């Protein structure tokens, strides 16, 4: 049995972890913490849990949590995972941080984009970036996992096969036009995210300045082995779940559409959670709703010389809680798909 | 020119008044007040106003507002209209209250349901209930208008022809099952009204205890000339605008389906804002979106002996700002439809 | 291993059966039939199945299907299940009909509401109504199951505890005001169900004339042991999945709110798929999305003397495919919850 | 009085023309034609017109229509406007084609993308492209107007100030990532556009092959005076109305962010229907809902050297019917804003 605690269980990613872990027979949910709702039954706060999960939300008692748990999921805003990871490390426990605290390898870059000091540089060094399709071996041995950002995951899986080819695309020609559902904005009550404001509307935000930019560039640079700069624009879609990224890059030439499509098919042939669509088909977010899947459509536009990749994930699943559980499975020697084999909720 | 101020201009009903009045050539918008956004340009807060309304939101200066304005629209939560109406009355100005402060004729009932003392019993006595289809003559001469509640309007227009017949329906058999879009909940940032919570879901709320209940009963009682008690249940629909009320009542007998349908057609034949649909057609909220219209479908179920009325309005229009402007038109001797002749925004 | 075929696999209920059965280790999917899409891979038609279900849709070959399968799910419009059930019966196989062909015990009533002759009166007599909470013992021994209608299920579970009490509510006082998501309308391309028409709107339909009316009355009459007539009005909600029924009935008197709430809690204490909410809480459809659950809120309004019950289900699950699988589990001696233990997809 | 007929009045653009023209006091609606609904009252087909427009839909009688009308709006699929424009021209009447028949100046390009022969090359030569902000003088004298495509309008208005500068952006660096509401797909009943399929989902379509591509390139080439090739990708947003285009282009250098923003502000300072947002603000589609407005956000990303423009319109208004009426106003010597001064329907 794996003993698990979730820090920040009443945010959308936290409660999605509860959904994924609450019925597993190889997992014990120890502590579900919530500052706002401590003392209340989580099934009354979230009636979709009624009859399935009967925990009472607690204040975080770091000593207790790190004593009782084998692995601690941190589903809190950036900054909060640092002391938790430190204490867990001392006690020999594992941490999966769904926030940004261990994603950027350069603490200075972290501090520039997140405006807080990074107090655990040594842990940062040790931390493993939790994208299994990129480096699952490192994850198996990790103590601290930096679970990737939601936009980031959709983009990295969309570009990885090409980046690994090193010279198939023109450096710095990459444009990532991403669209997200609203659950990515979290569960805080603010006017801009009211149903009345968002419904039947579409907008861009964080143009040229979104915090996921350095994370995407760090990983693409690692994959390609050369400095890579991208353009990233997020948008808000009137839907709860789902991210679709449309990715453009100029191809260096000499590669046919068939060759490029085959590259993707081969790259992901053995991946349980990535599906490459037949040429001419394009994915929609609804197809991966509630699952840990990433679906990819790819084409090469001979007219313009660009490859266009469309990548969809469920932001709360492969973009957050699902990927975190995939990482947990790897860290504990389980089949990677344990508890994650599900068919999307369509329609 | 009519000089107008809007108190609470940055709530949904307030900004809807701005939409209706901002381009009128016979109206001058004097003051738009907002506690939260004082000092900010309203067209930057609400970019749909860009290029059309260039006011800066102000703190409420009651002395100034009542000096400058001929009529003051109060679009604030209950309790706030009382001192405003008092001062306006002193200065000989008119007030249209879109809140609940002057709706319930019995101050004790007001205090029971709204949990605040009513400080202006004399004004309450004078105030006229602003449902033009019920008593437009009284509105013409009014100083203080109690603009009806949104659910209430949909229900009163749905029942008025029957109530006036006195004995066509069984007393206390009325059930009003109402469904509202989310703009009725206002523009405060709370978790329950986030897009992510509301989208693709449907729920009931305030079952057996909603504050519109005594207001509906007061007016039905007036119309029927006999004490009337109803069952009222509101629900939340994942849409921004619109109310649909499904109303059930047991018919005393002796009336045919044709007779009942004809009753409605005659009752509203000359009303500019009420349309009775042909028998067999049922209204949808989208048909009245953005307009001051109420559309009604009516049938008599011979099997069960009940009349069923389906009534739709736009809650921000005939349920709030549109009806308020209709009342203003009447109070200032204008054609009742001035500035309100519009076709619904479909689709 | 249970060998299963799904007739009409490319409608919403059919493909939901595929979702529920496609990953089960105790089930073999034999034939997925579709008139429209025969010859096409179902995972290309429904990309949420990609990588999970690799069947090709087939024309229905009744001889083959009834030879190969232990149980046949029929997810077709009414009329089509009759010859299929006949053939299956001859071969000693089981049939679960998700349509209306075996729901109404009186063939004349069936013919009146569905406008087609009932060709299998003997099978109709044998067929068992597949609402496990009402009579699971009969289901265990059944050959032909009439899977209940979606609206019907939400209403029957909402009323069953009261009906069984025989004299707690006034006969014929029941009003069922139901609201459904759009997947209930099926997957035919018609203008009225286009996104553009339905979005951000709400409407009633089939007022006083919906085909689920006699089915509801038949079962309530059985439960109460006395003729019961209801008023039923369906509405369309801009959401894909979910039904919420608001049910009103006049209480005969002498019963307190606590007593009524306790009646429901006791009635469903051991039911795996029905949850009664604490007094004062009201359910929303999103809480049961993707699950076989029914959640109920109940109150007694002392002012009006009415009980108000709010019942939510996922129309494709407890209202169709989920309940069908629950019935299959019972018919094959499996744990009733096999393959159906899941937490709702919130948000 | 201008006598107007609408050919194809029961599609979404056709009925939007009815909304815009139905209440105008300087316009007479002569004929509303519809193949599918001939003989039916348009207000029963579209109840938002109830009480406002009492026309019966007719079969197209080309002789009659061109005799009675001063201007004929053609709101039909491509190919259908050709014979209508021919006949109108013979009778000395004006035509505004909301389809694609007169948009592409090269008949061969038209035939390649639209797969039908162009039978009226002479009219094609005469036809004027109806984007008033580009060349309103030509529109004033036109007989046949090619009303621009919806995506096209959003992109052209977003790029025009830069294109006119000739050498500010790198040729062929332009990427247009566009997102549209569902009304752009028309009012035909097909499965892919059902509410159940589209709701809470997002997808790309027509990647690298959309028919608006050559139209965009033709106009950009005219504006820049040099051959221009673009990348265009449309997406479908779960909302009825609205288009947002995110446009990327590499700046040749030497231009600051302030300079670029000022360029846009100056270019559109006197345009009644285009608003440039203050730097740092980004538009949302809801702000222009129901209006003829285009709102633009602009920034220059110094890090990447790209300009990013976000452009929003209502696809049925500035993207179709609104722009068509704007063109009509110009052709008949009216104030360009006649009947089009309206504030967006927010929320």
UniProtKB/TrEMBL annotation, chains A, B, C, D:
InterPro entries to which the protein is assigned, alphabetical: AGPR (IPR050085), AGPR_AS (IPR023013), AGPR_dimerisation_dom (IPR058924), AGPR_type-1 (IPR000706), NAD(P)-bd_dom_sf (IPR036291), Semialdehyde_DH_NAD-bd (IPR000534)
SMART domains to which the protein is assigned, alphabetical: Semialdhyde_dh
GO BP annotations, alphabetical order: L-arginine biosynthetic process
Domain of life: Bacteria
UniProt-listed PROSITE patterns: ARGC
Principal EC category: oxidoreductase
Alphabetized UniProt keyword annotations: Amino-acid biosynthesis, Arginine biosynthesis, Cytoplasm, NADP, Oxidoreductase
EC number(s) recorded for this UniProt protein: 1.2.1.38
Reaction catalyzed: N-acetyl-L-glutamate 5-semialdehyde + phosphate + NADP(+) = N-acetyl-L-glutamyl 5-phosphate + NADPH + H(+)
Active-site residues, Swiss-Prot/TrEMBL: 150
Keyword presence, NADP: yes
Domain named Semialdehyde dehydrogenase NAD-binding: residues: 3-142
CDD domains, A to Z: AGPR_1_C, AGPR_1_N
Any single Gene Ontology cellular-component annotation: cytoplasm
Major localization class: cytoplasm
Function: Catalyzes the NADPH-dependent reduction of N-acetyl-5-glutamyl phosphate to yield N-acetyl-L-glutamate 5-semialdehyde.
NCBIfam families: argC
Record PANTHER family: N-ACETYL-GAMMA-GLUTAMYL-PHOSPHATE REDUCTASE, CHLOROPLASTIC-RELATED, N-ACETYL-GAMMA-GLUTAMYL-PHOSPHATE REDUCTASE, CHLOROPLASTIC-RELATED-RELATED
Name of this protein: N-acetyl-gamma-glutamyl-phosphate reductase
Organism for this UniProt entry: Trichococcus collinsii
């Amino acid at each position: 049995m794996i003993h698990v605690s979730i820090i920040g269980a009443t945010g959308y990613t936290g409660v999605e972890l509860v959904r994924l872990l609450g019925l597993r027979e190889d997992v014990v949910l120890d502590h579900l913490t919530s500052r706002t709702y401590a003392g209340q039954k989580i099934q009354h706060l979230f009636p979709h849990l009624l009859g399935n999960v009967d925990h009472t939300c607690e204040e975080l008692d770091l000593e207790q949590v790190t004593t009782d748990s084998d692995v601690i999921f941190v589903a809190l805003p950036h900054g909060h995972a640092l002391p938790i990871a430190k204490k867990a490390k001392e006690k020999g426990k594992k941490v999966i941080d769904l926030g940004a605290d261990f994603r950027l390898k350069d603490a200075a870059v972290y501090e520039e984009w997140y405006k807080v000091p990074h107090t655990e540089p040594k842990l940062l060094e040790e931390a493993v970036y939790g994208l299994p399709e990129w480096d699952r071996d490192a994850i198996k041995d990790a103590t601290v996992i930096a679970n990737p950002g939601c936009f980031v995951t959709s983009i990295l899986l969309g570009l990885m096969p090409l980046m690994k080819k090193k010279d198939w695309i023109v450096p710095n020609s990459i444009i990532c036009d991403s669209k997200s559902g609203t659950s990515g904005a979290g569960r805080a009550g603010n006017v801009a995210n009211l149903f009345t404001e968002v419904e039947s509307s579409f907008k861009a935000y964080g143009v040229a300045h979104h915090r996921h930019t350095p994370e995407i560039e760090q990983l693409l640079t690692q994959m390609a082995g050369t400095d890579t700069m991208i353009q990233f624009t997020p948008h808000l879609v009137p839907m709860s779940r789902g991210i679709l990224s449309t990715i453009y890059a100029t191809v260096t030439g000499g590669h046919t559409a068939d060759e490029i499509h085959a590259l993707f098919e081969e790259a992901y042939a053995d991946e349980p959670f990535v599906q490459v669509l037949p040429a001419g088909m394009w994915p929609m977010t609804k197809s991966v709703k509630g699952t840990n899947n990433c679906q990819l459509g790819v084409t090469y536009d001979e007219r313009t010389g660009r490859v266009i990749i469309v990548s969809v994930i469920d932001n709360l699943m492969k973009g957050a809680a699902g990927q975190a559980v995939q990482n947990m499975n790897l860290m504990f020697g389980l089949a990677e798909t344990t508890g994650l084999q599900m068919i999307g909720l369509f329609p």
